[in-house]
Structures are given as structure tokens and as C-alpha cells.
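Researcher: Let's do a round of design. I'm pasting the C-alpha cells now; please hold your answer until I've finished.
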């Protein structure tokens, strides 16, 4: 049904649409038709009219040129206008030509007479100006040195603070004296000159004064200007002026001079290296750079930055010094007796005076340092340095610890004077090596470590490179054991090296560490606990722990464990390198630190021995674990040495016998202090210097 409806609807709709279209398309529309016709006409006219018009104009023009209508009014008017214009132009040409010719003839006939009349009149005017007025001209000026308080005058050199004298030369061409000439310098203040007579060139000496205000080594510039008021015609009286409008005679006479001293001091030096408590001699050269001879006492004053009086005799005075001449003095004496002036920047400068006025100074200050041989100071660090190569680090380090009164110095630049201490080594000292990172301290390190005992060697440099540099270039550190440790009171990781007395020719195991200048003081404080004998390490660790503080880290116990572990590593390294069985026996030697701690404790536990027991038990917990699980130790250990050490410790800790029938320290501690034992068992690495 729906389909039938749609089909019928569409058929009827189409029929109706076609009928309507036929009806409306067949109708006439007169209004619209007329509007369309008119629009088409206008468009066609606008497009064609300019073309037709131009074609018609060209035809008419051609006809008019070929056959002009001479009788027409347009033709007649055009002809008349052109004829008149031509006449006027030609008339003007003829008139100008005849006028110019007549003008020249008339001028030639009268010029001489008129010129003479004018000349006589003008000469009288000019002559009257010259007779009745000054006519001045600025010629030149000179700048001379006038000295300082009467000293150094007229030597041709301009020095700081020196008076300058300016001579001025003026010519007066007029018949009247010039009474109002003034001059000024850069400050603008005018100075009136004396009267300049008529018809005279006069030089006024010292017409104006000034002063050298610039610093030594610079260029001083002075500009002089001259002025004279005009009282007559400017073109005549002011003919020599730079600017008549301002009555200025000259643009500005500029003088430039170098600011320097007439005398020079140079080459100040000591006879030899300055040493504490040893007198020394200073020498200096004096040169006259001025344009004249200097007579009279010339005194040299030495200046220095020392904390105490160190100049014991000044230079002798110079009585006379000719122009361009030099002399050398070597009469001054220096003696340093106080450590406050040792191993510091010492700077000498000097001036030379005449009658109290400085006439010269030292061109380059003498920068030097007073040195001293090694002097032992109880409980103070020892700085190892070559001051000739690394003085700045030494100066900074000494300032950090409060000066030389709080430290000793082994200066490798004084090798002969420090030979004994280098050969004998040091005992219980903190040695701080200040290397220039090119190996400046390596000879000293090699010598000192051979015989030093219970000593710590701390390398300090900004790149943390001194220890590795020494290890790569010094045999005494070649086989040193490496242990990364964290010690109580310092968050810094120390990669400690422990010299190997079994392989590297050193008397005893020494600790070597590395830090930066910023960390130096804290590292010295932390590592000072390692400057101990075995007896001291055992005793201090054996009294550090109690029932109340056993779970608190103890620096003394950590130091002991670190040293004991390093000792085992060095024996292990010697065994691996030599395969010598004696090192197996040495691994359980009773003189070793870990063995002594065990012996000091024993197996029995009681209140009087508890601190020793706790020291031994915590040491065992750390070392036993490190041998198997702490990579820096475990990775280096040979199984033979490891088993020897473990068995030796377990005999004390776990007991003896095949089945550990005899009770050891562990069982006794658990029996007597069960609660404490359980806590230690739960926290076995509280005293560990290693991060395990």
C-alpha cells in the first residue's frame, strides 16, 4: 500500500511541476527585457567608444596637417602667439649680449679709480684699528714639570702630584698694549696675563699652574685656551682668533705626558733562599730615567707584609746619580725569627725618596717565601710538600689549621735539610701530602713510608687524585690493600689503602687516604684514630663497649676492625703473589691484631672482662661475614688463608674440639648475658666500618 501511494504521488507531482513551468516560461516580461537591453548597449558602447574616437582623431589630424585652414580663427590666433614668443626670445638674447659687452667696457673704464678710492678708505679704517687697539695672536704654549715641594723640578719627567708650569707665547701686532689677555686650563678658571706691549711677541713663563692628577703609568692631558676681548671690528682685530664670537684666540693647545717617576728601582732580590733564623742580604738596582743628574741623598725605603720586623738594616743612601746611569745596592739585611712569617706569601716593595718626596718605586714587587726545615711538634700534623711547586696549597692548608704553630712541614725543596727525617720516617703522625698532581710529593712519600710507624698518610688535592698518582708511581703503595670504610663521625667514604710490609719494603703497615681541601680537617680528625700501636688499638677497643652501649657504633672498635681486616688482606696478597706457605702460618700468628684481640678477651665471660669480650665478639661477627660476603674482602681472599683465619677465630668464639665440646666465647656470652647476646646476634654489624 505504501509503495502504491509513493508511486502515485511522485507521478502527479511531476505532471503538476511541468505544467507550471510551461505556463511561466511562455510569458513575456517587458520590464526585465528592457533593462537587459539597455545594460548590454551601455557595455558595448563603453568598450568600443575610445577606439573609434582615437581613430577619428588621427584621421582629422592628418587632414588638418595636409590641408590647414589658414583662414580659421584658431589658425590665426596660434600663428600670432608663436610669432610673438619667437620675437621675445630672440630680443632677449640680443639684449643680454649687448648689455654684457657694455657692462665690461664700463667696468674697465672705472675699476682702477673705484678700487683705489675703496683701498684708501679701507686702509684708513684698518690702520685706525691697529693704531687704537691691540691685535693679538696665540703663538704657542709649553708645559714644564715644576717638582713636588721643590723636588724633581725640571727633570723632564712628570710624576704623580707634580706641579706643572705652562709658558704662553702671544704676539701683539697692534699699537696698543694688550692688557686683558687671559688663559685657562681644563678646570675653566681663567688667569689674567701681564700686559703684552705693542708690536711685541712675548712669552709669559709660568703663566698658569696645574698639577698631575692621574695615576702612575697613565697619560695626563692638559688643554690651554687663550682669550682676549674684541674692542673693534672683529674681522680686523680678530683676524687671528679661533672664534671671534667667544673671543677665543686658539682652539686649545693640548699637551700629553706620561705619568712616571724620574728614578726606577728594579731587580730586588735576596742573596739566597730565605730560611728561618738565617740572616740574608737584599740587593736592588737604581736607575735615573730623567733628563738631568740627581745630587743629594737618595734614600730607599723597604716595605713588607711580614707579621714581625724582619728588615734588620735598610739600604745605604745614594749620594749622586747621573742622567741615564744605574747603580746596584746590596746592603739591606733580612732576618726572620718568628714562625708567623714562615711558609707564607712574603712581599717586598720599595720606594726611593729625596727630601721625603717619592721620586721612584720598585717596578715589580719581590714575592717570596721564608722556609724552614722540619721541626717535630707533638700531636700536630705534618704537611709534606714541595713548596717550590705547590706553595699555594701549603699556604691554604696552614691557614686552615691555624698557622705553622699548629703544624710541621717537610718541604721537599729543602731536601738536604730534611734528609734525616725522610730517611728515618715518622712515628704516630698524621702526614698530609699536598701534591701538585704531577708527582711533586712522590719522592717524599716513598722515603717516609719505608720507616714510618703507626702513621696515617692523607693525600689532599682538589681532584682526589693524589693517592692514585702515588700508588701508580711509588713502589711503597704498589700492593697496598684497599678497604672502603665508613668511620663513625664522618659520612665520607674513605677508600683506605694499607701499605704491605710483606711485599713493598715498608717496616710497618701504614694507612693512606684521600680527600679534598674542603674535607681535610674532618678527615684528619676521623683518621687520627688509626694512628695507634697494636697495643693501643687492642686496649682502646677492649674498653669501649659496655652492656649499655654495645649497640652504639664505637669509633675505637671500628678502627680496630678496619686495621685487623687490612692486616689479613696484606698477608693474603703476599701469599697469592709468592705462594710461600709461611704466610699460611703468619695468618694465625699471635702478633696479628685480630689474634691479639681474641687473646685479650679469652673465652670466659664475666663482668670484669665484658668490654674485652664484646670487642672480640663484634670483631668476629664483622670479619667472619666480610671474608665470605663483603666483596672488597671476599673477592681478594685465597681459600687457604681464609680458612686459616676463620678456624683461628672460631676456636676462641665457638670453642675447641672436633664437635666444639669446649665452650667458646659465644656460648659463654649467651649464658651470662643472654639478652645482650640476642641483641648482638640480631644486630651483628653495628660496629662494622664496612657497609655490608
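Researcher: That's everything. Go ahead.
Model: Designed sequence:
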Amino acid at each position: 500500500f505504501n509503495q502504491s501511494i509513493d508511486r502515485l504521488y511522485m507521478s502527479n507531482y511531476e505532471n503538476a511541476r511541468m505544467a507550471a513551468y510551461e505556463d511561466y516560461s511562455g510569458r513575456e516580461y517587458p520590464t526585465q527585457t528592457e533593462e537587459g537591453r539597455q545594460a548590454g548597449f551601455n557595455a558595448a558602447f563603453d568598450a568600443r567608444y575610445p577606439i573609434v574616437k582615437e581613430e577619428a582623431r588621427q584621421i582629422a589630424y592628418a587632414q588638418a596637417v595636409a590641408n590647414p585652414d589658414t583662414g580659421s580663427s584658431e589658425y590665426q590666433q596660434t600663428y600670432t602667439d608663436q610669432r610673438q614668443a619667437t620675437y621675445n626670445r630672440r630680443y632677449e638674447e640680443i639684449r643680454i649680449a649687448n648689455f654684457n659687452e657694455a657692462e665690461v667696457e664700463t667696468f674697465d673704464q672705472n675699476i682702477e679709480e673705484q678700487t683705489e678710492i675703496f683701498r684708501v678708505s679701507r686702509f684708513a679704517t684698518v690702520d685706525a684699528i691697529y693704531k687704537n687697539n691691540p691685535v693679538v695672536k696665540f703663538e704657542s704654549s709649553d708645559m714644564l714639570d715644576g717638582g713636588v715641594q721643590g723636588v724633581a723640578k725640571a727633570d723632564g719627567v712628570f710624576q704623580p702630584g707634580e706641579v706643572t708650569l705652562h709658558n704662553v707665547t702671544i704676539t701683539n701686532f697692534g699699537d696698543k698694549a694688550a692688557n686683558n689677555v687671559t688663559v685657562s686650563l681644563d678646570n675653566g678658571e681663567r688667569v689674567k696675563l701681564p700686559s703684552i706691549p705693542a708690536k711685541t711677541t712675548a712669552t709669559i713663563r709660568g703663566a698658569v699652574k696645574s698639577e698631575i692628577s692621574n695615576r702612575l703609568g697613565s697619560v695626563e692631558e692638559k688643554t690651554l685656551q687663550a682669550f682676549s676681548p674684541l674692542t673693534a671690528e672683529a674681522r680686523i682685530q680678530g683676524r687671528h682668533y679661533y672664534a671671534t664670537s667667544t673671543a677665543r684666540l686658539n682652539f686649545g693647545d693640548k699637551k700629553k705626558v706620561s705619568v712616571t717617576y724620574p728614578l726606577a728601582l728594579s731587580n730586588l732580590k735576596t742573596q739566597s733562599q730565605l730560611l728561618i733564623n738565617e740572616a740574608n742580604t737584599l740587593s736592588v738596582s737604581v736607575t735615573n730615567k730623567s733628563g738631568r743628574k740627581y745630587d743629594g741623598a737618595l734614600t730607599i725605603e723597604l716595605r713588607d707584609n711580614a707579621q714581625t720586623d724582619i728588615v734588620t738594616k735598610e739600604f745605604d743612601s745614594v749620594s749622586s746619580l747621573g742622567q741615564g746611569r744605574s747603580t746596584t745596592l746590596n746592603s739591606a739585611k733580612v732576618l726572620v725569627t718568628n714562625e708567623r712569617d714562615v711558609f707564607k706569601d712574603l712581599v717586598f716593595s720599595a720606594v726611593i725618596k729625596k727630601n721625603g718626596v717619592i721620586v721612584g718605586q720598585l717596578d715589580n714587587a719581590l714575592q717570596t717565601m721564608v722556609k724552614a726545615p722540619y721541626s717535630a711538634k707533638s700531636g700536630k700534623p705534618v704537611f709534606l710538600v714541595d713548596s717550590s711547586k705547590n706553595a699555594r696549597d701549603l699556604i691554604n692548608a696552614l691557614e686552615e689549621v691555624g698557622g705553622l704553630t699548629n703544624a710541621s712541614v717537610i718541604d721537599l725543596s729543602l731536601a738536604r735539610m730534611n734528609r734525616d727525617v725522610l730517611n728515618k720516617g715518622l712515628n704516630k703522625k698524621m702526614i698530609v701530602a699536598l701534591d701538585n698532581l704531577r708527582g711533586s710529593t712522590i719522592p717524599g712519600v716513598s722515603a717516609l713510608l719505608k720507616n714510618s710507624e703507626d702513621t696515617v698518610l692523607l693525600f689532599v688535592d682538589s681532584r682526589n687524585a693524589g693517592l692514585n698518582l702515588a700508588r701508580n708511581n711509588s713502589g711503597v703503595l704498589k700492593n697496598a690493600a684497599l678497604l672502603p670504610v665508613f668511620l663513625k663521625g664522618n659520612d665520607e667514604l674513605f677508600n683506605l689503602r694499607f701499605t704491605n710490609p710483606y711485599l713493598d719494603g715498608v717496616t710497618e703497615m701504614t694507612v693512606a687516604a684521600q680527600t679534598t681541601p674542603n674535607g681535610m680537617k674532618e678527615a684528619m680528625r676521623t683518621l687520627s684514630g688509626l694512628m695507634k700501636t697494636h697495643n693501643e688499638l687492642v686496649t682502646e677497643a677492649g674498653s669501649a663497649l659496655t652492656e649499655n652501649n654495645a649497640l652504639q657504633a664505637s669509633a675505637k672498635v671500628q678502627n680496630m676492625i678496619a686495621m685487623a681486616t687490612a692486616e689479613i688482606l696484606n698477608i693474603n696478597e703476599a701469599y697469592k703473589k709468592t705462594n710461600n706457605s709461611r704466610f699460611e702460618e703468619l695468618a694465625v700468628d699471635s702478633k696479628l691484631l685480630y689474634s691479639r684481640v681474641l687473646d685479650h678477651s679469652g673465652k670466659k665471660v664475666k663482668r670484669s672482662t665484658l668490654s674485652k669480650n664484646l670487642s672480640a665478639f663484634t670483631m668476629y661477627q664483622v670479619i667472619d661475614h666480610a671474608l665470605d660476603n663483603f666483596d672488597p674482602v671476599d673477592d681478594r681472599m685465597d681459600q687457604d688463608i681464609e680458612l686459616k683465619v676463620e678456624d683461628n677465630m672460631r676456636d676462641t668464639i665457638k670453642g675447641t674440639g672436633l664437635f666444639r665440646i669446649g665452650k667458646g666465647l659465644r656460648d659463654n656470652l649467651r649464658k651470662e648475658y643472654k639478652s645482650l647476646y640476642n641483641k648482638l646476634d640480631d644486630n651483628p654489624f653495628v660496629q662494622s666500618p664496612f657497609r655490608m
